[in-house]
Amino acid sequence: MNEPVWTRELTWLVSVGAVAALLLFVVDARVMDFILSNRNQLTRWLAEASQAGRSEWYLVPALLVYLVTATADWRNSGYRVRARLVSWFGQAAFLFGSIAITGIAVNLVKIVIGRARPSMFGELGAYHFDPFVVSKYFSSFPSGHSTTLGTVAAVLMIWFPRQWLPIGLVCLMLSAFRVPAAAHYPSDVVAGFLFGFVLTVVMARFLAARRVGFRPRPGKMLPAATGMRQKRLPAA
């Protein structure tokens, strides 16, 4: 029996995430007022650390691995080497594709919602929306950096399931740094991270159902990456 693409665990995750984003939305103005009133060296360091969410940090290495494995001499390689090349080729393609797709998707959502960024806080406040305005000043919700980190978290948790918790916590923490960077509101960060994570898991499960690069793990939300060495996978 094939595993469904959408699961109850995903429904629960989206529901909890939506409630968290809504609760944070209520306090967005207070949080940003505090951040803007207390800028210091620490907030500047956190702003630099939040650049870990830039998509090119992952797109470029993924593309390089894809090109190297695509142009490698597979014919003169042994079975194990060919199997490893196939795995790297497929996973690099998935990482590149998932970041690109979630990045495009979140930018479309940004345009539809049109929330003013924190840089406009003094003039417009935290709850100003101009839907369908294509401008960097009205593209706060959801956070693009957080979407990338949510995507990366999902991919890494599939690749290294035994470390799913620290991976998730580190990526979420890096996403949260967008708030002290005064680049996004807290609700933007949670929504962006959730958007990237869930969309990536759904794409991986869709491929797993067709045995393309992934295989289902019955009863588990995260599929397994084909060709990756995974011992006694945990419950994530």
Describe the structure.
Strand 1 and strand 2 form a beta hairpin. Helix 1 runs antiparallel to helix 8, helix 6 runs antiparallel to helix 7 (164-176) and helix 6 (144-159) runs parallel beside helix 8. Strands 1-2 form a two-stranded antiparallel sheet. The protein has helices spanning 8-37, 41-49, 56-71, 79-113, 121-124, 144-159, 164-176, 186-209, and strands spanning 214-215, 224-225. The protein contains 8 helices and 2 strands, in the order ααααααααββ. It has 236 residues and is an all-alpha fold. It is 62% helix and 2% strand.
Helix proportion range: 55-70%
Main beta sheet: strand number and arrangement? 2 strands, antiparallel
* Order of secondary-structure elements: HHHHHHHHEE
Q: Roughly what is the average pLDDT, rounded to an integer?
A: 93
- Determine the number of helices (DSSP H or I, runs of at least 4 residues): 8
Numbering strands along the chain, what is their spatial order in the largest sheet?
1-2
Radius of gyration (Å) = 19 Å
**Portion in strands:** under 5%
Derived from helix and strand composition plus strand pairing, the structural class reads mainly alpha
The unreliable regions are none
Could you say which overall geometry the principal axes of the C-alpha atoms support?
elongated
Determine the N-to-C terminus distance: 20 Å
Q: Strand tally, please? A: 2
Instruction: Classify the oligomer.
Output: single chain
